[in-house]
Design brief:
Number of strands: 19
Structural class: mainly beta
Radius of gyration: 25 Å
Oligomer: single chain
Shape: globular
Number of helices: 2
Distance between the termini: 91 Å
Strand order of the largest sheet: 8-13-14-11-12
């Protein structure tokens, strides 16, 4: 006959209570507050995001630029990343023992924008709903992941984006953002809208050369009050090309792929010179048989940018590019 000790259930009960008490600190959170604004006019950036680098913990600013970031108790310090479409990303090393209010975080514009638009209605309500979500694709991602795909296909990595080549010919790519076609997506290049004036459609064959000269692609999913263009139903895609921020130097590229795909291109830039001038010149030749019969193609692309820095707050930039095929 097996005997049970009377003290054994009591021991198990005490251990269970101890484990429960030790787990309580893991449930508590710290709340970090602050306000995200435009560095040039100090206006709030509605929908700007902040998150802890390398984690899923984040928050979006409300209509007045304020945010409340809930941070698990185990973090003693972290790197906070601030983002907003049309602005440079900012990082801030934060020690949670120094306080809970970050104050004002000012983001600098990263593209040539249009004149400021007066927002007559806000898509962020007073109850705190924050629907704006922004993703950024860097030039390094485009260089390493695009390959022989069409330029818009690099957006496959962005949530809520669907891309396809449709008929398989060069420039036949199509984008759906949150289920909406290009007619309901605002496409901008350096903050300038390029949707067709008749039906809002975008013909990507006209922009085939952008893959070689893009600095970043900013994708805003859903309605927003971005000052880069009129808010759209599906979202906004802003393509920022290289300018005075391009590094001095040059490169030559040759690539091959399936179905007779070949691409030869070059890129050269002066970088920002001492006199404030900078230029970038790029070109490429692409040809292939296409993976569908009758879709063989041959295309050229060119890009020229001449920029002049006028003081700290102004930039004069001339850009010309095209993609005959």
């Amino acid at each position: 006959m097996q005997r049970f000790s009377a003290g054994k259930p009591l021991t198990i009960f005490l251990l269970t209570v101890a484990l429960f008490l030790f787990s309580i600190p893991g449930w508590s959170q710290k709340i970090i507050t602050g306000r995200i604004t435009d560095s040039q006019n100090n206006e709030p950036l509605a929908g700007a995001t902040v998150h802890i680098e390398g984690t899923i913990h984040g928050d979006a600013a409300d209509a007045d630029g304020y945010f409340e970031l809930k941070v698990p108790e185990q973090y003693a310090s972290a790197v906070l990343v601030f983002r907003s479409i049309g602005y440079y990303e900012a990082e801030k090393k934060y020690d949670f023992t120094s306080g809970r209010d970050l104050g004002v975080i000012a983001l600098s514009p990263s593209s040539i924008g249009l004149n400021e638009i007066k927002v007559l209605a806000s898509f962020v309500n007073k109850e705190g709903d924050k629907p704006l979500v922004v993703s950024t694709i860097s030039a390094a991602d485009i260089e390493t992941k695009l390959g022989n795909q069409e330029f818009p296909e690099i957006l496959k990595s962005v949530p809520s984006v669907y891309t396809t080549r449709q008929g398989g010919g060069m420039g036949d790519a199509r984008i759906n953002l949150r289920g909406f076609g290009s007619e309901n997506i605002g496409l901008l290049i350096n903050g300038i809208p390029v949707n067709g004036m008749e039906n809002g459609a975008v013909y990507w064959s006209n922009w085939a050369g952008l893959a070689d000269v893009t600095q970043s692609i900013q994708v805003q999913r859903g309605l927003g009050a971005s000052k880069l263009g009129i808010p759209s139903v599906g979202g906004t895609i802003n393509i920022v090309t290289k300018s005075i921020d391009a590094e001095a130097g040059g490169s030559v590229y040759y690539g091959v792929g399936n179905d007779g795909y070949q691409k030869l291109g070059f890129n050269v830039s002066s970088g920002l010179m001492k006199n404030g001038w900078a230029f970038t010149l790029a070109g490429s030749h692409t040809k292939g048989d296409g993976y569908v019969r009758g879709t063989n193609f041959e295309g050229w692309s060119y890009f020229v940018n001449l920029s002049k820095r006028l003081g700290e707050a102004h930039l004069l930039s001339f850009t010309a590019f095209g993609a005959p095929q």
